Amino acid sequence: MISPRSPRALWLARRAGAGRRSIRALVKWSALCVVLIASSEIASAQSGYTWDQVKAKFEAANPVLKSDQLNVDEMKAEEITAYLRPNPQFTMTEDGVQLARHNGVWQPLSGVQLQPNFSYLHEREHKRALRRDSAKEGTQIAASQHEDLERNMLFSLRSAFVQTLEAKAVLDLAKADLEYYDQIIEISRSRFKAGDLAQIDLDRIELLRVQYESEIQMAIVNLRSQKIALLQLLDDRTPVDQFDVTGFYGFTGDLKPLNNFEQQALDARPDLRAAVESIEQSKTNHKLAISNGSTDPTFGAWYTYNPSFNNPNDQQTLGLSVNIPLRIFDKNQGEKQRTLIDIDRNQQLTEAARAQVFSDVDSGYEQVRSNIALLIPYRDKYKDQAIRVRDTVTYAYQHGGASLMDFLNAQSDYRVVQLAYLQLIGSYMTAASQLNLAVGREVIQ
Which of 135, 394, 412, 428 could serve as 371's disulfide partner, Cβ 3.0–4.6 Å? Predict the structure, then answer.
């Protein structure tokens, strides 16, 4: 038994104490890490997702895009099938078994012939290579169409993102208006207590507050609806209250000339690229149709053991054959004609796609230009005027220099101008997204 005061007992006690201190330090460190991680997640949620983050999340998670990418992968796999060689054919023939006695002799296996036969179809006129090229061009078309799907879905995503920013801005405006109006109510109550304001005027001022409250509730519902639509596109199950976005909500007055956007659209639009690639594929298919009209011989070879030939010493023989179809009636004429027509059809569709590109760019450009033309006077003149009129009339009303109706009208005009400005910014950003869609890349942030 170890004495409590022995050196070994003291050493064990010190070791146990050190162990407990290490465990307590580890627990504290783990708790600190949890707090830091939670704090970073909360900070990220509070700051909200930027447009680049939303876009990256959408491209990684949207099921429609992911399923369409699988279609491109399927087309890529078909390239392997298109370039496969024909399989050789193997046939085993057995002949010469004696069925009945003859002259009292029955030797059923003595005259049996075994004949293994190998044959192979030789494809001429580069059929395999043309099938491979057609399949590769089909993959390129599918990839361009996938980019076009992504382009259209990114426009829907961008529109939902902009509408969410607009809803946030409208909610902030409604809250700021209510806060300002509450100050007016407090001042009006002070005037009423001092005998400087009639009861009916105070009641009318206080009753008007319900409109501000209604606007806030409508703005909250609209913001939640926009977040729900955005979460659906992201295939995200995050609670609405924990999801937020952030970004620049405004406009720039700079707009490049129209021909710059048209040239970029001709270079970037994936639907136009898919139409051009369809022309190349139709030309390859026409070459393949011509090639399929050529004759493909089948070469065969066989080995025979114990044949019944006139040569009694010929016990092992080799045979060769060539099978050549006579393409007298069927020379693939219909497919040649169809693929030739298909070239013209795809050329016409490409011209229509090119015309659509110009139409989309012109329309999107005009929408952006029109919104800028409306926004500039709001930014440079009308917003400041509305604030100045509201503050001036409010001051005059508080000092008896303006009527209650003048005060209420000034408040209403201010709200109308500010709300119109925010809505115009939303229209501008949506029009900018439309122009990005028309060009095929982000030319306006």
Answer: 428
